[in-house]
């Protein structure tokens, strides 16, 4: 599907604000961010139309009000004010992101030391901007810089499924068995967050819309892939239990390429699969890495971090992406692929994706786990948020 608005960082967005502010804080924030958008030359639509690419959706702490998109290219930012979290911010804020089907949730809360604004992403990032007395300009500059690059990102969400996978591949291969054991290993290491059952948060109408636009039936985090040959690779599907990757065409997909004109990942599936989940949203990123680096035979993405100083001492390249781009975007793929491409050894790289997690390359999946097990890659469970 062609995007209605060309969304690249630095270009102009068309945007609209829907809903009514539930609190004075939300009203103040929306006025401030609207002013920033105008200053940057973005086009304001008083009423959303087919060309509106960014929606600021004003919601409250009690009732879900998802904005009904007509196109998957529309980027929705939901904004609300709630109580200061008593435990982890994600426990309080993440359900609001899901219930309102948001690409980004801006969650405001007040405490004794002022206003805390969390920018919560589907990847479970939650960087915080704190309003300092007398520094509202700096606060809104910060807020704008956390919205604009994400809203300008170009998603590669579509899959083109072709029911032509040969029977000998549909039955499974050595590589698909490696993916199964690798998923089990990640689960044993407690690096696979629980699959989120989105039906707990969304009604049937919202679930239908989510499937129609994005072919999403569930949420899970992390992904893994292994090269098949110089042009194709196997990868975990989206929304499945990564600790139980058993069936080709259901849990594991065979990626054969990327169609730039259709903006779609090409996936070969068995003849009997009628309604497949799409391949992991990061397929565009993995495709870029495999295409550019013949020595990379496997990739693992997990929501964790690394001790970069200790890992660098073992001869690995450890580098961070520059911006918190969303999963499944060309920008995150290019940012990650450039780090790997420019490394001395592309097959021994750890990429720290800002406010998100890590990507590890290897000659094969065993090579990656051997380096984790022997301590040359020092895993840290807590993701650094900036």
Give an overview of the whole structure:
With 386 residues, the chain is an alpha/beta fold. The chain folds into two domains: 138 residues, CoaB-like (Rossmann fold); 223 residues, L-fuculose-1-phosphate Aldolase. 28% of the residues lie in helices and 23% in strands. It contains ten helices and 18 strands. The strands form three sheets. Strands 8-12-11-10-9-13-17-16-15 form a nine-stranded mixed β-sheet, with helices on both faces. Strand 4, helix 2 and strand 5 form a beta-alpha-beta unit. Helix 1 crosses helix 3 and helix 7 packs parallel to helix 9. It is globular and about 60 Å long. The N terminus is likely disordered.
Number of helices: 10
Largest beta-sheet details: 9 strands, mixed
- Proper CATH architecture of the largest domain: 3-Layer(aba) Sandwich
Report the C-alpha radius of gyration, rounded. 21 Å
Q: Considering DSSP H and I runs of 4 or more, what fraction of the residues is helical?
A: 25-40%
Percent of sequence in beta strands? 15-25%
CATH superfamily of the largest domain: Class II aldolase/adducin N-terminal domain
Given the C-alpha coordinates, what overall shape results? globular
| CATH C-level of the largest domain | Alpha Beta
What separation lies between the terminal Cα atoms? 34 Å
Strand order of the largest sheet: 8-12-11-10-9-13-17-16-15
Tally of discrete structural domains = 2
- Judged by helices, strands and strand pairing, the structural class is alpha/beta
Q: How many β strands by DSSP?
A: 18
Query: What's the mean pLDDT score?
Result: 89
Enter the CATH topology name of the largest domain.
Answer: L-fuculose-1-phosphate Aldolase
- H/E series, N to C? EHEEEHEEEHEHHHEEEEHEEHEHEEHE
């Amino acid at each position: 599907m062609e995007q209605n608005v060309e969304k690249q960082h630095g270009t102009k967005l068309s945007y609209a604000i829907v809903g009514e502010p539930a609190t004075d804080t939300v009203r103040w924030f929306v006025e401030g961010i609207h002013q920033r958008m105008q200053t940057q030359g973005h086009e304001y639509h008083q009423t959303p139309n087919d060309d509106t690419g960014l929606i600021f959706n004003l919601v409250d702490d009690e009732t879900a009000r998802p904005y009904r998109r007509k196109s998957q290219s529309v980027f929705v930012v939901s904004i609300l004010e709630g109580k200061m979290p008593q435990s982890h911010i994600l426990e309080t804020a993440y359900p609001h992101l899901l219930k309102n089907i948001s690409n980004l949730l801006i969650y405001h809360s007040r405490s004794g030391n002022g206003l805390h604004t969390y920018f919560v992403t589907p990847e479970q990032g939650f960087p915080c901007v704190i309003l300092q007395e007398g520094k509202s300009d700096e606060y809104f500059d910060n807020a704008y810089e956390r919205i604009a690059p994400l809203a300008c990102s170009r998603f590669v969400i579509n899959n083109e499924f072709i029911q032509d996978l040969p029977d000998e591949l549909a039955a499974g291969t050595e590589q698909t068995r490696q993916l199964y054991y690798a998923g089990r290993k990640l689960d044993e290491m407690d690096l696979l967050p629980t699959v989120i059952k989105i039906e707990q948060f969304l009604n049937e109408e919202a679930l239908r819309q989510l499937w129609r636009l994005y072919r999403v039936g569930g949420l899970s985090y992390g992904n893994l892939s292994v090269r098949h040959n110089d042009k194709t690779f196997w990868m975990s599907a989206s929304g499945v239990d990564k600790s139980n990757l058993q069936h080709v065409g259901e849990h594991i997909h065979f990626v054969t390429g990327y169609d730039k004109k259709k903006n779609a990942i090409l996936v070969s599936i068995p003849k009997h699969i009628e309604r497949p989940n799409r391949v992991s949203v990061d397929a565009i990123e993995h495709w870029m890495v495999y295409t550019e680096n013949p020595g990379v035979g496997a990739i693992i993405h997990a929501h964790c971090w690394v001790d970069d100083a200790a890992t660098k001492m073992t001869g690995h390249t450890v580098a961070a992406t520059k911006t918190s781009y969303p999963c499944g975007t060309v920008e995150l793929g290019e940012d990650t692929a450039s780090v790997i491409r420019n490394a001395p050894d592309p097959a021994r790289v750890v990429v720290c994706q800002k406010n998100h997690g890590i990507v590890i390359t290897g000659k094969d999946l065993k090579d990656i786990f051997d380096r984790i097990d022997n301590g040359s890659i020092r895993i840290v469970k807590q993701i650094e948020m900036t």
